[in-house]
């Protein structure tokens, strides 16, 4: 009986333990279901976040690339990077940072070392090399991240070529607004692309009218050959200086000295010309030449007077000698005195002819 009673107690204990196990199993099952649901939700959120992040990267209007921090091998990049630099994705992923970044300028290598060491890069200006070999200015920032156990450098690059162009144009504009001489930016064939206010004022045309014209429209027809020759020199890369007459709107021909050279204007080759009005200088040169001529005439007049005085002394002396010979009846001996008079007269005539030639030369007749 005791054994049966003991078995019954044991069975009740087992039933109690079984009931507890069932309750615990139910609890664990519910917890597992909840954990599975939460995991699925978290996975969906991560997947959605990753998809959103990838969409942002893929459609970003700026270059984004990831490179190994140790080897500097490019590991990934967005489509804008390939379009911007001109490489295919496969080609770009076979390259290193040094292949696309002009690290030789402005301490590039040192900046890469600091980026890896400190984990980020402040906004800096850098030059990137395109597939064509051309360099473009860009603003770069970045940070060091860990991807699949590898230390990588994530870079964000913004092309600032347009901003640089605007800054360059601003500098040109400031120059145009403050310079005291006419300044012209023209096409290599002569058409005007930009002019300053001084040019409008000096040439007598409105800005709008001048921008529809070219050098051929304002240069004197007599100087077209010079313009053609100068154009060839400028296009070959020479910095040239030349003088031509500019015809104003009123028809006045004004001498100008031009200094011209090739520049880049709005990403295209152009010619920058500085013009200087030579009217005052030309007038001063004429005045100086006139003064020099007057001075020369004065000196010559003094010399002529001296020479004529000498000739007259000779003629008067020979004349007096001839008179004395005639008074004494020595007519034949007058020949010597008369010869001296004739010789002096010829010398005087020669001086007069030279004066006449000099006068014609100095007056330009």
Question: What are the SSEs and their pairings?
Answer:
Elements: H1 2-59, E1 63-68, E2 74-77, H2 79-85, H3 89-92, H4 97-100, H5 108-118, E3 120-129, E4 135-147, E5 150-159, H6 161-178, E6 183-186, E7 192-195, H7 197-203, H8 207-210, H9 215-218, H10 224-235, E8 240-247, E9 253-265, E10 268-277, H11 279-327, H12 334-363
Antiparallel strand pairs: 1-2, 1-5, 3-4, 4-5, 6-7, 6-10, 8-9, 9-10
Helix pairs in contact: 11-12
Q: Please tell me the overall pLDDT.
A: 77
Task: Write down the Rg.
Answer: 50 Å
Order of helices and strands: HEEHHHHEEEHEEHHHHEEEHH
Oligomer: single chain
Strand content: 15-25%
What is the terminal-to-terminal distance? 165 Å
- The percent range for helix content is 55-70%
Can you give me a brief rundown of this structure?
This protein is α+β, with helices and mostly antiparallel strands and 365 residues long. Helices cover 57% and strands 22% of the residues.
Overview of this structure, please?
It is a single chain. This protein is α+β, with helices and mostly antiparallel strands and 365 residues long. Helices cover 57% and strands 22% of the residues. The protein is built from twelve helices and ten strands. The strands form two sheets. It has a five-stranded antiparallel sheet with strand order 2-1-5-4-3, with helices on both faces. A hairpin with a 5-residue loop joins β3 (120-129) and β4. The radius of gyration is 50 Å and the shape is rod-shaped. The model has no long low-confidence stretch (mean pLDDT 77).
């Amino acid at each position: 009986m005791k054994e049966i009673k003991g078995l019954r107690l044991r069975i009740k204990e087992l039933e109690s333990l079984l009931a507890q196990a069932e309750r615990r199993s139910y609890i664990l099952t519910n917890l597992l279901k909840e954990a599975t649901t939460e995991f699925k939700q978290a996975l969906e959120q991560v997947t959605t976040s990753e998809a959103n992040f990838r969409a942002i990267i893929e459609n970003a209007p700026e270059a984004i690339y990831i490179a190994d921090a140790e080897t500097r091998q490019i590991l990934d990049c967005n489509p804008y990077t390939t379009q911007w630099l001109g490489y295919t994705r496969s080609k770009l992923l076979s390259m290193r940072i040094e292949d696309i970044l002009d690290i030789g300028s402005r301490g590039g290598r040192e900046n890469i070392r600091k980026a890896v060491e400190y984990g980020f890069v402040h906004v800096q200006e850098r030059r990137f090399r395109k597939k064509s070999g051309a360099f473009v200015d860009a603003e770069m920032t970045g940070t060091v991240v860990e991807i699949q156990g590898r230390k990588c450098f994530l870079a964000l690059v913004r092309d600032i070529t347009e901003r640089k162009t605007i800054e360059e144009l601003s500098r040109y504009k400031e120059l145009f607004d403050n310079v005291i001489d006419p300044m012209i930016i023209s096409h290599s064939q002569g058409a005007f692309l930009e002019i300053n206010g001084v040019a409008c004022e000096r040439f007598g045309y409105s800005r709008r009218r001048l921008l529809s014209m070219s050098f051929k429209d304002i240069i004197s027809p007599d100087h077209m050959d010079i313009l053609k020759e100068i154009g060839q020199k400028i296009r070959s890369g020479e910095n040239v200086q030349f003088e031509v007459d500019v015809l104003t709107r009123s028809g006045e021909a004004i001498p100008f000295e031009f200094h011209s050279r090739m520049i880049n204007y709005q990403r295209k080759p152009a010619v920058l010309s500085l013009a200087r009005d030579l009217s005052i200088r030309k007038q001063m040169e004429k005045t100086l030449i006139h003064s020099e001529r007057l001075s020369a005439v004065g000196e010559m007049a003094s010399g002529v007077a001296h020479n004529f005085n000498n000739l007259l002394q000779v003629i008067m002396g020979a004349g007096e000698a001839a008179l004395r010979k005639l008074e004494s009846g020595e007519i034949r001996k007058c020949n010597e005195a008369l010869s001296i008079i004739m010789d002096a007269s010829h010398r005087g005539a020669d001086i007069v002819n030279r004066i006449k030639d000099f006068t014609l030369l100095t007056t330009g007749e």
